[in-house]
């Protein structure tokens, strides 16, 4: 499945006393890193795309279609959170199978699809384990396998690897890059780590105080610190 372009067009949102305004394009099939300090509005940007929040004005366009008021379940989007959103009482196979069936009831063909997704994400043989029996990286792999089964053309990741150590983080980034290359999803990944962008992203977006301050291909992005003081401060330059 090919990715779709994602556009926030003059999308305004207010949270408590913070006014946010996003006007940014994520090209179809691109892998973008979204960076910025805590509280800058990164997660809000993803929530607007996913439909968990609605802008007070402006539009959310996916594949050129207006999704601004569409319910999250009706958008062509999968979202992976930092806490991976797994159900503690369900085993790996059932948690993953929710990507195919919200009820968790799977027929034989669907079970085979789940097993294939688990194998693809390095989880073969762990089908009957509960989330508490998994490592942090394995739990994130379950969330990624579930998103693969949902097979939506836009994949959002909200700091999913923040709690992982450097080696495991690099392994998970490689998995995201591999999935992006093979499936062609539009991937938008929130991260606090500039090295994540350098490692796998094609584009980078910097958000500060609810505004997009910089957006460019990664090959050009970091040079913008010379003209964007907030980006320079964020990068420690």
Explain how this protein is built.
The chain is α/β, with parallel strands linked by helices and 237 residues long. The chain folds into two domains: 1-76 and 153-237, Rossmann fold; 86-151. Helices cover 33% and strands 25% of the residues. The protein has eight helices and ten strands. A hairpin with a 2-residue loop joins strand 1 and strand 2 (18-26). Helix 3 packs across helix 4 (136-150) and helix 4 (136-150) runs parallel beside helix 5 (166-183). The longest helix has 18 residues, at 166-183. The protein is globular, with a radius of gyration of 18 Å.
Query: CATH homologous superfamily of the largest domain, by name?
Result: P-loop containing nucleotide triphosphate hydrolases
Number of strands: 10
**Low-pLDDT windows of residues:** none
Radius of gyration in whole Å, from Cα? 18 Å
SSE string, helix = H, strand = E?
Answer: EEEHEEEHHHEHEHEEHH
Q: Helical content, roughly?
A: 25-40%
- Side-by-side strand order of the widest sheet: 6-7-8-3-9-10
Distance between the termini: 40 Å
What is the approximate shape? globular
The CATH architecture of the largest domain: 3-Layer(aba) Sandwich
Range of strand content: 15-25%
Helical segment count: 8
The level 1 CATH classification of the largest domain is Alpha Beta
